[in-house]
Amino acid sequence: MGILSDFEDRIAAGIEGVFAGAFRSPVQPVELARALARAADDGRAVGVGTVYAPTAYTVALSHDDDAKLGSFKPVLAGELSTYLTDHARERGYLLPSRPQITFTTHDDLRLGRFRVSAALAETAPDKPQPAPLEDDAPVSAGMATVTLGEAEHDVALRGNEMLVGRLAECQICLPDANVSRRHAAFIRLDDGWAISDLGSTNGTIVNGRPVERVRLRDGDVIEIGVTRMVYHEPRR
User: 160 pLDDT band (50/70/90 cuts)?
Assistant: First the structure.
């Protein structure tokens, strides 16, 4: 119930804040969240050692409910997307991209009634492709590395700093809407490497905890957006 409670708290804060008095629909956000989570579970697909979660979701409403939600729909879509990202992470599903929520109207739906559906990405490869990298040279034995996601692609940490982010100029580029343009950086230390968050929107997680900067140890798990990385000390 943890992620659902967090979702309810965020929605309540939104309704009581900017959108106070605007939310008049009998369709309850928490019921939408539960229904979308079930659709994610029902729509998952098993690849080679990977379970893929749907990324495209449609919420069908009555015309009256759609009108009553009004300007709250973009906020609700964003919070539902965050909830589905957390749900996928909790279940161990791979999300090729951030979930997208689309609202539609159906003539056969009455006030307070809704339907949801989910679809996988158009192409889900048997094995995710590695993120584009600035340098794809073979990994040397004396270098620290990070293993990227389910692709198990090793990236050598070189120089004094390696940027992680959505921009193509980052040494580790993650094309994921959850990732900030310049999200984090691996920083060389005298005795190893640290990772530093660069004021990202969604934060940098190391071993399940958000960090601003931390010295990395062998086997540390780093989460940036929907990508997980494992840090490895240099092989001797």
Answer: very high
Q: How far is CA 134 from the centre of its chain?
A: 23
φ, ψ for residue 209, nearest 5 deg: -125, 135
Q: Cβ neighbours of residue 92 under 8 Å, at least 6 residues apart?
A: 51
Gyration radius (Cα) of the chain, Å: 20
End-to-end CA distance of the chain: 44
CA distance 154 to 214: 21
CB atoms within 10 A of CB 229: 23
Task: Please report which confidence band the pLDDT of residue 20 belongs to, taking 50, 70 and 90 as the band edges.
Answer: very low
Per-state percent for the chain, helix, strand, coil, to nearest 5: 25, 30, 45
Q: Give the Cα separation of 163 and 184 in Å (integer).
A: 6
Q: Are 196 and 163 in contact (CB under 8 A)?
A: no
What does the angle CA 2 – CA 117 – CA 124 come to, to the nearest 5 degrees?
Answer: 85
More confident residue, 80 or 2: 80
Residue reference for tokens 């950086």: 185
Q: What is d(CA 103, CA 81) in angstroms, rounded to the nearest whole number?
A: 13
Give the whole-angstrom CA distance, residue 142 versus residue 187: 17
